[in-house]
Write a structure and sequence with these properties.
Length: 313
């Protein structure tokens, strides 16, 4: 039976790929997409989620608009440089055919979680503001989730500071609340997502897909510019799709159950994830931290599923 999933995201080019992978995977029953401010402002992340669902032929899927800003402190930056002014630059996608649903993202997640207690996975691939608000406002619904899988964090080097990864850096107080919760979330951080790569040749191959190929290749080529600047290689990292791939096929990732803390200070390590694999902090294990991946399995899965989705359009 397909596993019920809600995808909370801030599209964002790699978020768009994550949405497509979730829709393309029969192992998952995507119940809703919820949006949060992050890569670009909320109005754009919401419009982008709707544009991607139109592209995938799912204008019926519920979309809930969520938090417009981080909980405590407004971050000094977003990710427009990486994802473009619209958040999906290069995609050429038209304006969405509809607006989001009437329910706030937090209410939508709460309703779906309580409809099926203990069954629904929440996969969060943007800042964790909506998830923390759910824990604060609707604790019974938060507890009713089966599990939480997050793209976020970094143990071996960040992308917003030497230590902090974007999703955690954008709203560290929210991330701290989620990490400290009894859910023991799965955290898929940059240590593994930087190895979930597509090359320029891979993007050329994706460009051949019917319907999806043009928009996908266009936005991935745009996304590659920043990767070339920063890493000197013609690759794109598929951060968010790797978290979804773990739901489809858990063997894509190797996890370690260990203690993780989020730095919420206003010092240079704000937004860092401190991953204590040796147990030296003395804290209890509170997260399943992704330590390794099967990169080929991930790439194979992504290609196979995107091709199947494209063929069905
Ligand atoms: C994360 O930050 C965003 O820019 C991406 O969409 C991804 O979720 C990677 O640090
Ligand atoms: Ca994202």
């Amino acid at each position: 039976m397909a596993a019920p999933v809600i995808l909370d995201c801030d599209p964002g080019i790699d978020d768009a790929v994550a949405i497509l992978l979730a829709l393309a995977s029969p192992e998952l029953d995507l119940l809703a997409v919820t949006t949060v401010a992050g890569n670009v402002p909320l109005a754009s992340t919401t419009a982008n989620a709707l544009r991607v669902l139109d592209l995938a032929g799912r204008p019926d899927l519920p979309v809930g608009r969520g938090a417009e800003r981080s909980l405590v402190h407004l971050p000094a930056d977003d990710s427009k440089e990486t994802h473009g002014e619209s958040g999906l630059d290069g995609s050429g996608l038209p304006e969405p055919s509809r607006g989001p649903g009437p329910e706030h993202a937090v209410d939508l997640i709460a309703r779906l979680a309580l409809d099926r207690p203990g069954e629904v996975t929440l996969c969060a691939v943007g800042p964790l503001t909506n998830v923390a608000l759910l824990a604060a406002l609707r604790p019974e619904a938060f507890q009713a989730l089966r599990r939480i899988v997050v793209m976020g964090g970094a143990a071996t080097g960040g992308n917003m500071s030497p230590y902090a990864e974007f999703n955690v850096w954008f709203d560290p107080e929210a991330a701290a609340r989620v990490v400290a919760s009894a859910h023991d979330p799965v955290l898929v951080g940059l240590d593994v997502t930087r190895q979930a790569r597509l090359s320029a040749a891979d993007i050329d191959r994706l460009a051949e897909l019917p319907v999806l190929g043009g928009p996908l290749a266009g936005m991935l080529r745009f996304y590659m510019r920043k990767h070339v600047d920063w890493y000197g290689e013609e690759v794109v990292f598929q951060h968010d799709a790797l978290a979804v791939a773990h739901l489809v096929d858990p063997s894509v990732l190797e996890l370690a159950h260990c203690h993780v803390e989020v730095d919420t200070s206003f010092g240079p390590a704000r937004g860092a994830t401190l991953v204590d694999r040796l147990g030296v902090f003395g804290g209890h294990a509170n997260a399943h931290w992704a330590v390794d991946l099967d990169a080929e399995r991930f790439r194979g899965l992504l290609f196979e599923r995107l091709a199947a989705l494209a063929a069905s359009r």
